[in-house]
Write a structure and sequence with these properties.
Helix content: 55-70%
Shape: elongated
Largest sheet: 2 strands, antiparallel
Strand order of the largest sheet: 1-3
Order of helices and strands: EHEEHEHEHHEHHHHH
Number of helices: 10
Number of strands: 6
Structural class: mainly alpha
Radius of gyration: 41 Å
Oligomer: single chain
Length: 334
């Protein structure tokens, strides 16, 4: 049996019933409509062209793992009565057990030694009177009671209360939605879910306020770093322009001194020419000092830190939006 994401939920359930005589519990999106396609409730990160192939020899554990790993859909194989079955059972074996069918290859035959001796002696009458007892291995049925689900919800709620993390919130919501689908008629469970939802809503609202405050602090720090960095960069730019003008002025003075030195050398004033050399050398040293000042500005460090802070703020805002949207599920009616 080949299953693709183009199949609808109703078609998938009918195919499982016809092929294996079992039911399939779908715990994500199935409450919307049985006519929706599987790709509408599948994990969008999975390959939308992926498919799985199962048959009567596929174990329950393998079938559920295929749905989870390939499609990102959580399912649970159940028998005709809606009871969960052993993970080691095969899909074809569940139908046989429901019908009471006993396969010679799967039965465990327990016979008495006396029957074996009489069979060896060829006593056919005793065979008829003392029929061989045949037993077959029934799958272990795992049943979860309402109390178990309540305990599981309370455990996940305590985890969410301690950490206030997004993953803990999703696990709690998934558990409550699954419990509501499995036990839709349990008033005790529904009331408990509503109570946990109200408490979790208060926790999520408080967590959202904390996250908003943290984002505000990060925005303020980022703004301060940006302003300081831009201010230092502007000041350095002003000094650079000032230095460039000073360099141009020194170069012009050196050129004028060299022209004057040449005139003095031609007229024979050697002493004055040597004095001009000292002035040229001092101005050249000043020019070299200005041109060699290429140290990295502190403004660049401030701007880089501000940039990384801005990236962190953007990530925090995206996570807050995701957290806020998911927490709104607590306020929805059961």
């Amino acid at each position: 049996m080949k299953i693709t994401l183009d199949m609808s939920i109703s078609k998938l359930l009918d195919a499982f019933d016809r092929e294996f005589g079992i039911s399939l519990g779908i715990y994500k999106g199935a409450h919307k409509s049985d006519n929706i396609k599987l790709f509408e409730i599948a994990d969008p990160r999975k390959n939308q062209k992926a498919f799985i192939v199962i048959n009567k020899d596929t174990s329950v554990e393998s079938a559920e793992a295929m749905f989870r790993n390939t499609f990102g859909i959580r399912v649970q194989v159940k028998d005709k009565n809606g009871n969960t079955v052993s993970q080691e059972s095969t899909l074809g074996g569940i139908r046989k057990l429901d019908k009471g069918f006993v396969d010679d290859n799967e039965n465990i035959n327990l016979t008495d030694d006396e029957n074996s001796e009489e069979e060896n002696n060829g006593n056919e009458d005793e065979k008829v009177k003392k029929k061989k007892k045949s037993y077959f291995l029934k799958p272990k049925v795992v049943k979860h009671t309402v109390e178990d689900k309540i305990k599981e919800i309370d455990k996940l709620y305590l985890g969410f209360q301690r950490s206030e993390r997004y993953k803990s919130m999703v696990n709690l919501l998934s558990c409550m939605e699954e419990a509501r689908l499995v036990y839709p008629d349990s008033k005790e469970l529904i009331d408990h879910i509503e109570d946990i939802k109200n408490k979790s809503l208060n926790i999520s609202n408080l967590s959202i306020k904390k996250r908003k405050f943290a984002i505000l602090v990060l925005i303020i720090v980022t703004s301060v770093l940006s302003v300081v960095g831009i201010g230092i960069w502007g000041y350095n730019l002003y000094n650079k322009i000032k230095k460039d003008k000073e360099v141009d002025s020194i170069i012009k003075e050196i050129d004028n001194l060299r022209m004057r030195k040449g005139s003095l050398m031609e007229s024979g004033n050697i002493s004055e020419a040597n004095a001009i050399d000292e002035s040229i050398n001092s101005k050249s040293e000043r020019l070299n000092t200005i041109q060699s000042d290429t140290s990295m500005s502190v403004a660049n460090y401030f701007i880089m830190i501000a940039f990384f802070m801005a990236v962190i703020v953007a990530v925090f805002i995206l996570r807050l939006n995701k957290y806020n949207i998911t927490s709104m599920r607590f306020s929805k009616n059961t």
